């Protein structure tokens, strides 16, 4: 029994990381139908900038705030310099542009921060919590908490605020949204700032567990993307569920089958889900609204 | 016939070039300074640049300056082959250092052998020098030697059953295979054999399985990068009180920092003299070279020395030593001199090459180290 519990804790820890990254995909996707493959780079920047600020002598909370703010600014810059000039291009072209942006950010980070692996201390120490014979690190609880808070925030944003609805409207039909007085340029800028900020927050929370280096973004983006697809792209509920599900499948496969097959098992499940439910577990409901 | 002609032409060109360009010795390097193997190539490139600068400031070899042409192959064997050809044909080098990875080394090797230019590889695999090829040498000990060193230490402690948790990256997978190939010779069985992806965030599942495997007395983690740090942290999180062995892949101060001194307490691994520079006996033959490299590298780059930069340091030492002894910068003479390298102290070990040993190290080059109180100590 403690064995199963330990596998579940491991799955939940990893799942929370995936969920946080997957949540970052939702806003930009909802605003423009673009899957932003630079999302992993925002996660890397969050962790890396926090490390740099902290190493420069700033307290951790301030360092984290600066990292999130700077990453949001980079997100806005990416929208202004790379996405906006290509306005009118098909979604596929925009997705390819985000891949280019991610390579650019990774290269820049490599030049600026070097190739060393970095980390900073966990927020509440490294003493594991013992529950029923299994252990979990306090930092895992921070990550899980972070994922839940971001989820609730996003859900409220999209269902309860005018701006959130404006984002959805822009995604649905940009021209119609403009006609009813929505500033679509502002919506795009806002969505990049928020997505980058959420990515950076994820980076701040997960770095004490996963460590960070200039090239970790790609792995985050792939797993986060897989989680978002599993749950249903664009739906915060889907991102949260997809992330945790993916983490749990991996941990249980590694635990009861073999660690050799854990990624394969996760992808088989994703393929099956997408085969029978092409919209993911929680579907893209936003499309049906008009 | 064609080959001899090319070589003669090349030698003539080199001789002309040497007189024309006020006698400089041209050496080439193709390293993976960026890309997936940057952790190897980056310190290697910095080391070579630093050493060439130092040597030229000190007057070069017999008054002849060294000109280094360094290419970044990004870990891509195809690029490495192109750069090796370019180094030989356009840059007219007399020797090549490089090949941060086994893949790039194998590419450069074939070009160097065809053109009869001495080549010193910085990669781990035994295939590079076994079977022996006339112009190819290498400085790092092989993965197999690291496994043997670890199993020797386990044997001394009466450990007969172990669990392995290996990274699926090139380094981890290669060492996992090598270890499983030699483990039988030490009367040790691998009862649990788990793997993880280098980018995984949590390995408690695999470690729980190993812990619950009957009879496991120690755990071995072949891996590189952040994986072993996370394994070490998870190992403490689960409070497993079996000895934990890491590989030479994480033999640097950075590992203790990332895993945390508390979590890393008691971890054993085979490392080189470089890690324990301040603990070497005053009469240790490696002490002067280790001290000199460590001081210079850390002052120049501000990062702590690691095993990999040391490989480049040793390759450069072997090459310059050979050129000095040969008294000539002619590829064939350099090759012969490298092969007769004897008792040359490097950071990795003491090199003695021969016609059938183009590595020149034995197991004594590795020192069994243990982390105590956040510091490396030698296990006697």
UniProtKB/TrEMBL annotation, chain A:
One of its GO terms (biological process) is amino acid transport. The keyword ATP-binding does not apply. Pfam families: BPD_transp_2. One of its GO terms (molecular function) is transmembrane transporter activity. It comes from the Bacteria. GO terms for cellular component: plasma membrane. It is found in: Cell membrane. InterPro entries: ABC_transp_permease, BCAA_transport_permease. Keywords: Amino-acid transport, Cell membrane, Membrane, Transmembrane, Transmembrane helix, Transport. Its main location: membrane. The chain crosses the membrane at residues 7-29, 49-76, 88-105, 140-158, 179-205, 211-231, 238-258, 264-284. It is a multi-pass membrane protein. The keyword Transport applies. Belongs to the binding-protein-dependent transport system permease family. LivHM subfamily. This is Amino acid/amide ABC transporter membrane protein 1, HAAT family. It comes from Paracoccus sediminis.
TrEMBL record, chain B:
Coiled coil: none annotated. Residues 24-372 form the Leucine-binding protein domain. The keyword Transmembrane does not apply. GO terms for biological process: amino acid transport. Keywords: Amino-acid transport, Signal, Transport. Pfam families: Peripla_BP_6. Residues 1-23 form the signal peptide. Gene3D superfamilies: 3.40.50.2300. Belongs to the leucine-binding protein family. This is ABC transporter substrate-binding protein. It comes from Paracoccus sediminis.
